[in-house]
Amino acid sequence: xxxxxxxxxAGKKLWGDDEAPExxxxxxxxxxxxxxxxxxxxxxxxxxxVKIAGAAPTQEAREKLILAAGNVLGVAKVEEEIAVAASExxxxxxxxxxxxxxxxxSEKAYGxxxxxxxxxxxxxxxxxxxxxxxxxxxxxxPAL
Length: 144
Fold this sequence. Notes:
This protein is an alpha+beta fold. It has two domains: 2-84, Histidine-containing Protein, Chain: A, CATH 3.30.1340; 92-141, LysM domain (Membrane-bound Lytic Murein Transglycosylase D, Chain A, Roll). It has four helices and six strands; from the N terminus they run E-H-E-E-H-E-E-H-H-E. Strand 3 (49-56), helix 2 (59-70) and strand 4 (77-84) form a beta-alpha-beta unit. Helix 3 crosses helix 4 (116-122). The two termini are 25 Å apart. Residues 17-86 form the BON domain. Its main location: cytoplasm. Pfam families: BON, LysM. InterPro entries: Bact_Kbp, BON_dom, LysM, LysM_dom_sf.
């Protein structure tokens, strides 16, 4: 089981403050489906914590499922139990800070800003453009 922290006040708004936890779980499951992420998962929401469990075909798919569940307004923590069919190295996660760019994040992670496209590709379809990141967003930083 993995535990991942997210910034509660940042992310995509998927449900209203006065809606029941079941609504949040359904909204996250719909978001996962809309993004076309590969995996068979069940989502539960309790307060600001999302529990996501099930199976994913790859480590990359597992990590994208975690990010899709966590980069949501009102979510501070993701607890996951996602079994992976094929073992692969885990990526690291980076929380975007004010002033960050994918280039700067790439320089920190790889020592070369020009490798920012690897980070962009690793975060598709959640990212639609390399310049569209925001403070508090959590990104996958794949091993190269």
